[in-house]
Design brief:
Helix content: 10-25%
Shape: globular
GO biological process, one term: glycoprotein catabolic process
Main location: other
Number of strands: 30
Structural class: alpha+beta
CATH architecture of the largest domain: Alpha-Beta Barrel
CATH class of the largest domain: Alpha Beta
Distance between the termini: 16 Å
Organism: Ornithobacterium rhinotracheale
Catalytic activity: Hydrolysis of terminal, non-reducing beta-D-mannose residues in beta-D-mannosides
Subcellular location: Lysosome
Length: 530
């Protein structure tokens, strides 16, 4: 896995001209806080994963070893890395520390300066750190706090126990944690409440202006023409006139390009570059045609010098979710490029409880096997994780449509303002990260949350006012907040509030999804693991 991220980093550097990025993934140390015993590790990892590697913990999948590893979740832990910075590196106008995944409750210190408090496993962080860096040795420390202890006060303040039955502990704190639900246990897997640096860490050296976001919105798509709007976000330290250059390439050959001059001002800038692509080669799902991908490359130039750039592989396609009233229910099927498709696939759960063990070879095997089974869709289940970029890159490459759940499953959730703010940040981050992938066919609010509230007997287990508030919270999160964010940040992507869409998946006349379908939807019930 570490080799994969190294190769990815080399690719990024090769595309970013005068920008520079270094990895901080190797040669870390970690320890239980207030312990004198330190262990070496590389990242991505979790405390449990690294302790297993050091044989401090037994293999968790063997016998009854699950019981022997539970003590880790009640402790606080610290990760430390020393790294060198050259004096010339400090000449870059902007330096960002990129923490792409912290699991979950953590404080981050750079040279003893606190620079971040993190509280969401699914939110990456880009922190301006130039003023804290120095030539020579620098030290990065990340303290991780036990999710059990961190959420104790919230649990007690609620005055009742949330019916999160997949949380395999008496004190159920999983609903308060924006962290992979399955870490707390599930009906298909063991409980390992992980903590650690679960995705890579980079130091990014940037010029006086740099691209913070690039979205390729496909407004209209047909075999004759694709109407595309390129949305660009730029952060700048100063006012200046820049040229912005867009090149669209197919197999390395430029097939279309535009160049525009813009006045960039100090602070945040937003620009729109419309372009039409005539007779585009459309991206098709597996079994329906080729997975054509174009390279969309955007550059900012200041006096003919490229100071920032981004590149995305884009599949031109149109995906529709067709829901029409019928005499005995409602249709539910997908059209891709105007044609109804039979969605043949599976419900995908994380392939490893220890997330760090999912390396590039695992993902490649997953998608090769998916194609070999003649599937064309995977549903990323809401009790797991938003997968890493390589997962979606492979889905684009192999023509596998992705039904993407938000990470909520099988229990009601709070809806206080702090929780909603945390969910909003998580949703925006992941919608924006995934919206350029051709494979993303649908955003779904959750897995079986409304189902659980209505039909699993929760009204007998919590106070009446708490039970009624479950419905209010559901509407706030899944029928207001999340659909509004999808509409704003990925307007071309359909959204449904939950699965099953009409609660009570056991009602056979209504079918697997809780609706009567026209027969164009065939998602398999079984979990898919490789």
């Amino acid at each position: 896995m570490h080799r994969f991220f190294f190769l990815l980093n080399v690719l990024i550097m090769s595309l970013s001209f005068s920008q520079k990025r270094i990895t901080l993934n190797q040669d870390w140390q970690f320890s239980e806080i207030n312990s004198q015993k330190w262990y070496k590790t590389d990242i991505p990892t979790s405390v449990q994963h690294s302790l297993i590697q050091h044989k401090i913990l037994p293999p968790p999948y063997k016998g009854t070893n699950e019981e022997k590893i539970q003590w880790v979740e009640d402790k606080d832990w610290i990760f430390i890395k020393d790294f060198e910075i050259q004096a010339d590196d400090l000449k870059f106008p902007n330096i960002l520390l990129q923490l792409t995944g912290l699991d979950t409750f953590a404080d981050v210190f750079l040279n003893e300066h606190k620079i971040l408090h993190a509280q969401n496993m699914f939110v990456p962080h880009n922190i301006s750190v130039k003023k804290y860096l120095k030539a020579g040795k620098n030290t990065l420390k990340i303290k991780f706090y036990s999710p059990i202890k961190y959420n104790k006060t919230k649990r007690l303040a609620a005055g009742f126990e949330y019916p999160a039955d997949n949380d395999h502990r008496t004190e159920k704190v999983s609903v308060y944690s924006r962290k992979a639900p399955y870490h707390f246990g599930w009906d298909w897997g063991i409980r390992i409440v992980q903590m650690g640096i679960w995705r890579p860490v980079y130091l990014q050296f940037l010029n006086e202006a740099y691209i913070t976001d690039y979205f390729v919105e496909q407004k209209e798509v047909s075999e004759e023409k694709a109407v595309i709007q390129n949305h660009l976000q730029i952060n700048s330290d100063k006012d200046f006139k820049a040229n912005i250059v867009l090149n669209i390439r197919e197999n390395g050959k430029t097939i279309s390009s535009i160049k525009r001059s813009f006045d960039i001002v100090k602070g945040s800038n937003s620009f729109l570059l419309p372009i039409d692509l005539n007779q585009p080669k459309l991206w098709q799902p597996n079994g329906w045609g080729k997975q054509n991908l174009y390279d969309f490359s955007i550059e900012i130039k200041n006096k003919n010098k490229t100071i920032s750039s981004k590149i995305h592989k884009i599949g031109i396609r149109k995906i529709e979710l067709v829901r029409e009233k019928e005499p005995k229910g409602e249709s539910f099927y997908f059209k891709v490029n105007g044609y109804p498709i039979f969605a043949k696939g599976a419900n995908y759960i994380p392939g490893e409880t220890l997330t760090a063990q999912q390396d590039s070879a695992y993902y490649e095997r997953l998608f090769k096997n998916t194609v070999a089974a003649n599937m064309n869709m995977l549903r990323v289940w809401g009790g797991g994780i938003y997968e890493n970029d390589y997962f979606y890159e492979l889905a684009d490459r192999y023509g596998i449509l992705i039904w993407q759940d938000f990470m909520f499953a099988c229990t009601p959730y709070p809806s206080n303002s702090a929780f909603l703010d945390n969910v909003e940040e998580e949703a925006i981050s992941n919608i924006k990260r995934l919206r350029n992938y051709a494979c993303v066919a649908l955003w779904c609010g959750n897995n079986e949350v409304e189902e659980s509230i209505k039909y699993w007997g929760f009204e007998k287990r919590v106070p009446a006012d708490a039970y009624q508030n479950f419905f209010h919270s559901y509407d706030q999160i899944f029928k207001t907040l999340l659909p509004d964010l999808v509409k704003k940040y990925a307007p071309e992507t359909p959204y449904i509030h939950g699965s099953p869409l009409i609660a009570n998946w056991g009602d056979l006349p209504l079918g697997l999804m809780g609706i009567r379908t026209t027969g164009a939807f065939g998602m398999a019930v079984s979990h898919l693991k490789f």
